[in-house]
Specification:
Length: 238
């Protein structure tokens, strides 16, 4: 698979929608993830990421402008033991709750499907990172309609049991802007991942479309110790 420069990939797409990146730092020391949201409407853009005890949540930047919390207010990141869950919707909670009951990542997502936002039928994208005892692996998932047909749900899971230092994978909701919005196609894109969290955060944020970007979260987890360092960037403030 061709390796892409993540910054150039983002610059080339004015509206990838929401995106998840998971990989391994170039020095092999950190498990890396990033999650971003974008918006075209006032309601979608009126959001910030705020920290929680085990991750982050989305909140309205200006509560007076929040017209519909459905699909835009959720917890994108939660931690369950040595597992970090990253998704673009409330399936974060589904994964957390069912994996806590000993179901697998894939099993938990069989209970969900794409978002109920016709005619887009936005895909639900999800990632799971296992970091512990010096070991690291991850998986990514997409739940989508069959070429816009709401009567057919397609579920794909991609597992990466031996991540390579300096590389990762990127999955996002839309191929680009449009009406309806065209759903992501294919498997997660292979990208390069640097060593430095500040460099990665700045590079991602600057590459996202200025008009449409809303918030960005980046986390580096030390594979040996499990210690996590996170960064949040919000275009709008509360």
């Amino acid at each position: 698979m061709k390796t892409l420069d993540i910054y150039e990939e983002l610059k080339s797409n004015s509206y990838p929608g929401r995106g998840i990146i998971i990989g391994k730092s170039a020095d092999g020391k950190n498990a890396v993830t990033a999650y971003f949201i974008m918006g075209r409407s006032v309601n979608s853009r009126n959001r910030v990421f705020t920290e929680t005890e085990d991750g982050i949540k989305t909140e309205a930047a200006d509560p007076s402008k929040l017209s519909d919390p459905h699909l835009i207010i959720y917890s994108p990141v939660r931690v369950l033991g040595n597992k970090t869950i990253v998704t673009n919707g409330d399936q974060t909670d589904t994964i957390y709750e069912l994996m806590d009951k000993q179901q697998t990542f894939e099993q938990s997502l069989r209970t969900r499907e794409y978002e109920d936002d016709a005619p887009n039928y936005t895909p639900r994208i999800s990632g799971i990172m296992h970091v512990g005892d010096g070991q690291y692996n991850y998986a990514m998932s997409i739940l989508k309609s069959a070429d816009g047909d709401p009567d057919s749900v397609e579920r794909f899971t991609f597992s990466y049991s031996s991540p390579v230092a300096g590389y990762g994978h990127f999955i996002h909701t839309y191929m680009g802007d449009g009406n309806p919005l065209p759903s992501f196609e294919g498997e997660p894109k292979k990208i390069t991942v640097p060593n430095d969290i500040d460099e990665f955060t700045d590079g991602l944020w600057n590459a996202l479309n200025e008009d449409n970007k809303v918030s960005l979260f980046v986390r580096f987890i030390d594979i040996e110790t499990g210690k996590a360092v996170s960064k949040i960037v919000n275009k709008y403030s509360k």
